[in-house]
Amino acid sequence: MPEKKFYSNWVALILGATVFLAYPLLTASQVAAETDTPAAQPNITFEEKVYSFGTVQKGDKVNHVFKFKNTGQALLKIKGVKTSCGCTVPKNFTKEIQPGEEGQIDVIFNSTNFLGAIHKTIYVNSNDPDEPKVSLALKGTVAADVVVQPPRNLFFGLIQKGQAATKSLVVKQTGSKELKVLRVEADLPFISAKIIPQPKGNRNYYKIEVTIPADAPEGLFRGKLKIYTNIKKYQVIEHTVMGTVRAKVVRPESQKNPVQ
User: Fold this and answer.
1) Is the per-residue pLDDT at 25 higher than 60?
2) What CATH fold (topology level) applies to the domain 44-143?
C-alpha cells in the first residue's frame, strides 16, 4: 500500500509540474499571436500615375485630375503636394480619405514658356507607410504655329557706352496659315525695332532688327518687345530684351605710364 500511494503521489506531482510549465508557454503563444496581427494602416492607390495630354498649342493650359482611393484600413492623410516647376500647379487636393473612399488632385500645367516634348512631375506625400511619397507625371508635346528665335529672350550682354548695338530676331511660321508681322513695339523708349523686308513671296518668316543706341542709359536694362501678327492665337507675342550698358573705364595717366 505505501508503495502504491507513493506511486500515485509521484504521478500527481509530475502531472502538476507539466501543467505548471505548459501554462507560460500557452500564454507566450497567445501574446505572440496577438503581436503578429498587423495594425490597420492606410494605402494610397492611384488610377493612373502618368497622364499624356498629347499635343497642345503654346500658351494653352492643361487641366487634369489624378484620382486615387484609400484601399487600406485606416484614415489616409495627404500631407502635401509639390511639383517639379512653377509651371505646374496643384490647384486643389483631398486632404483626408476614409478607408474605401476616393480622393483627387487637380493639376494645371501652363505651356506658355515651353516648346517641344514636356515631362513634369508631381510629388504626393501621405501617411501611407508603404509608399509615403508617390511621383505622378504630366507629359506631352507643346507646339506652336509661330515661333521666335532665339527663344524666350534676346540677350545683348555687355554694351560699351557710346557704341550702338544691334541684334536680330526671326519670327517663323510653322503652321498652315500665311504669317504677317504687322508691327513691333518696345516698352523702353531707347530700344528701337524694325521689320526687315523679305524677298517677295517669302512669307514663312520675318527678320526683326533690335537696336540699343549709343546714348542708351548706363546700367542693366530689361525690356519687352511686342510683336503683332495676323494669326489670331499669336496676335501679340512678347519677347524679352536684356543687357547692360557700361561706360568705358579710363585709367589715370599714372597707371598708363608707370614710373620705372
Assistant:
1) no
2) Immunoglobulin-like (2.60.40)
Map grid coordinates 503654346 to a residue. Answer: 58
pLDDT at residue 179 greater than cutoff 80: yes
Half-sphere exposure of 40 (CA within 13 A, CB side): 9
94 phi and psi, to 5 degrees? -75, 130
Mean pLDDT of 146-157: 90
With contact defined as beta carbons under 8 Å apart, do 190 and 215 qualify? yes
- Confidence at residue 174, expressed as pLDDT on a 0 to 100 scale: 83
Grid cell 508681322 is found at: 181
Query: The domain 146-246 is classified under which CATH number: 1.10.730.10, 2.40.370.10, 3.40.50.300, 2.60.40.10?
Result: 2.60.40.10
Predicted TM-score (pTM) of the model is 0.64
Per the CB < 8 A criterion, the answer to whether 76 and 97 are in contact is yes
CB 106 within 8 Å of CB 68: no
Of 183, 178, 218, residue with least CA distance to 202? 178
In one-letter notation, the amino acid at residue 30 is: Q
Query: For residue 171, what are the β-bridge partners?
Result: 148, 206
CB count, 10 Å around CB of 239?
Answer: 22
